[in-house]
Sequence to fold (430 residues):
Amino acid sequence: MDRQALQERFGILGDSPALRRVLERVRQVAPPDITVLLEGESGVGKELIATAIHGLSKRRHKRLVVVNCGAIPEGLIESELFGAEKGAYTGATDRRTGYFEEADGGTLFLDEIGEMPLQAQVRLLRVLETGQFSRVGGTATLQSDARVIAATNKDLGEEVGAGRFREDLYYRLSTVVLKVPSLRERREDIVPLFEAFLARFARQYEAPFLRLAPEAADLLRRYNWPGNVRELRNVAEQATVMVRQNPLTVDVVRPLLRGVSASAGLTLASRPGVGDAVSERDVLYRVLLEIRAELRAVRAEVGQLRGGDGREAPTEALVHVPQPDFADLSPFADLGEVEQEVTYEPPAAASYDAADTHFEIEDVPRSASVSSMPESLEDALAEGLPLPTMEEAESALIAEALRRFDGNRRQSAEALGISERTLYRKLKDE
Fold:
């Protein structure tokens, strides 16, 4: 079966080089009964790839059993996988058949394998190596001829180093590792996928087929899609059900992209001459500058709400935060202004004296200052300034807030959007 026929049969959309490479490997690993580990972010379609591997294998006429290891409580996962005898635990009124028995002769897809507890990993390793297992509470040895395909959105190598995943099981599962690309790695597929979803949902909901304006299509390509294809599908479904404007413009699409109001949802990959490392730093600086702008706006708003007479601010207030001027960051130029809801919460109960709401300015860490941060990454690079770490940036923001509010912890915590208890703890850790 060629790649195009494979995609049509299993509903895999896209024509990017990254997707082509994955599908070529699927065709290679499907026929032999080899264990496959699928790696990739959440929402990239790992289950669809597992379905394709099963459908191209000699086991395709048997069952494909899908198990989400992260959705099964720790105390039940062994009985779910291997079955349980009557009376093995409270509530076990009958013998229970496990997934390995159900998948005998077919394929068992273990999704989110990184969430499996260590005790269950021991039993899984044994059945992978010998095909033998026993039900929980039983002594009889059973045999299962199930091919295992596992998937994870974690770095299992790091999990092994942290002691959360068995090294021997990792090597047993990773006979063949197939990396499923994120949507950011196959940007050529974003608009065709979105239009395909629009057509599908138009038929499903008997709604008009929506078209994309060129500027909206460009916005979709530049968005980072942290939820990958699952998020793309969700946005297309929302647009079909809720939007009546045709074609879909930037102003209509932008509110549906939940990450657009936060810089993490955008990418600078399309900016000429900017590498991946610089893009991440640029985004970091944008976050810091936005926080600084928000601090200024919140302080001004709190001052207006108090009216200068010491009255408490209302429980909730809507703060209109102007977007900072980032003319040099072209990918963000069309975002406009952002409205954010800021909730003022009383300080949580703590072991320290709540009446002591001030902090001595002299004790504030002076390792960094928000006001001294460059306005853009280009300035930092031009001046040869080192980039602050996240810890240094956090310390600088706390120090700036305390100085601006004359050491008042409660007001500083409100401005930073954290509880007074959290601020107190962070100051103690300095």
